[in-house]
């Protein structure tokens, strides 16, 4: 008996296209991102993998991606759960800033520490500032961060994994998680047992489903899972890694 988990990073967003640090800023998909999401749904159909339930973040780029992909797969009717614990990593004071400008100003080493180190968070966002979420109704009463490294993302995503996603898998449901580059990196780190150094080199492409078969201990039967379009995934992973250059 294996469990089927599909991880799907949202399609390209308007801020991905502009090369801006996004984090918790709720930007829409770009036109290309919409197409990627639809294509992701078609890939699921072609692979014969039809989700029974979907989990998303509270951000529209993940919500829209799930809706578009599931509509393309004729699974628009399945149950849905949304939680901020699946949100993108909070990028702190970098939210809204251009990646290339930050790299030019602070240098490659600091840029990559903020972007991909396991435990160095960017500076905290100022409360009340343009790209802060402290007054956002969807997070009212929740212990939301002002900046996060991947470590903090893993710490807040894991309880959701254990308490909301694992029970769906245990019930035999094919689970789609439509989320973000860094919240999915945290889940992949946990699933594949990737160490704190190696995880800095792992990037997730937009819009290409990553399928894991998990054994009864929820360990992957194939480490790293499989992208439904491996060639497209490889090219897109390189593009994510090179952002800011
Ligand atoms: O800006 C962001 O929120 C993320 C994902 O787009 O960027 P990065 O890949 O640099 O962590």
UniProtKB/TrEMBL annotation:
Q: Which UniProt keywords apply?
A: Gluconeogenesis, Glycolysis, Isomerase
Q: Could you say which residues bind substrate here?
A: 9-16, 22-23, 61, 88-91, 99, 115-116, 181-182
The UniProt site entry described as Transition state stabilizer is assigned to: 180
The EC number of this protein is 5.4.2.11
Catalytic residue list: 10, 88
Q: Does the keyword Isomerase apply?
A: yes
Determine the domain of life of the protein's source: Bacteria
Query: From the UniProt record, which GO molecular function terms apply?
Result: phosphoglycerate mutase activity
Is the Isomerase keyword given for this protein? Answer: yes
Catalytic reaction(s) noted: (2R)-2-phosphoglycerate = (2R)-3-phosphoglycerate
| Cited Pfam families | His_Phos_1
The main enzyme category here is: isomerase
Functional pathway: Carbohydrate degradation; glycolysis; pyruvate from D-glyceraldehyde 3-phosphate: step 3/5
- Member of which family? Belongs to the phosphoglycerate mutase family. BPG-dependent PGAM subfamily.
Q: What does this protein do?
A: Catalyzes the interconversion of 2-phosphoglycerate and 3-phosphoglycerate.
What's the name of the protein? 2,3-bisphosphoglycerate-dependent phosphoglycerate mutase
Its lineage opens with: Bacteria, Bacillati, Actinomycetota, Actinomycetes, Micrococcales
What gene name is listed for this protein? Answer: gpmA
């Amino acid at each position: 008996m294996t469990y089927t988990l599909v991880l799907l990073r949202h399609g390209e967003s308007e801020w991905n296209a502009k090369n801006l640090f996004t984090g918790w800023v709720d930007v829409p998909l770009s036109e290309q991102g919409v197409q990627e999401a639809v294509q992701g749904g078609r890939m699921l159909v072609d692979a014969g993998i039809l989700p029974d339930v979907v989990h998303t973040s509270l951000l529209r780029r993940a919500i829209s991606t799930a809706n578009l992909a599931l509509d393309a797969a004729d699974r628009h009717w399945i149950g849905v759960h949304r939680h901020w614990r699946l949100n993108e990593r909070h990028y702190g004071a970098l939210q809204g800033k251009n990646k290339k400008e930050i790299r030019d100003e602070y240098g490659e080493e600091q840029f990559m520490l903020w972007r991909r180190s396991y435990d160095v968070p960017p500076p905290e966002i100022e409360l009340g500032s343009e790209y802060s979420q402290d007054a956002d109704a969807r997070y009212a009463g929740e212990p939301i961060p002002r900046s996060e490294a991947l470590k903090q993302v893993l710490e807040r995503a894991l309880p959701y994994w254990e308490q909301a996603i694992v029970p769906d898998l245990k019930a035999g449901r094919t689970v789609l998680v439509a989320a973000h580059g860094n919240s999915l990196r945290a889940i992949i780190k946990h699933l594949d047992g990737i160490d704190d150094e190696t995880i800095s080199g792992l990037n997730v492409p937009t819009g290409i489903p990553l399928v894991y078969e998990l054994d009864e201990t929820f360990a992957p039967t194939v480490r790293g899972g499989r992208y439904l379009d491996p060639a497209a995934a490889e090219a897109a992973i390189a593009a994510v890694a090179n952002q800011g250059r």
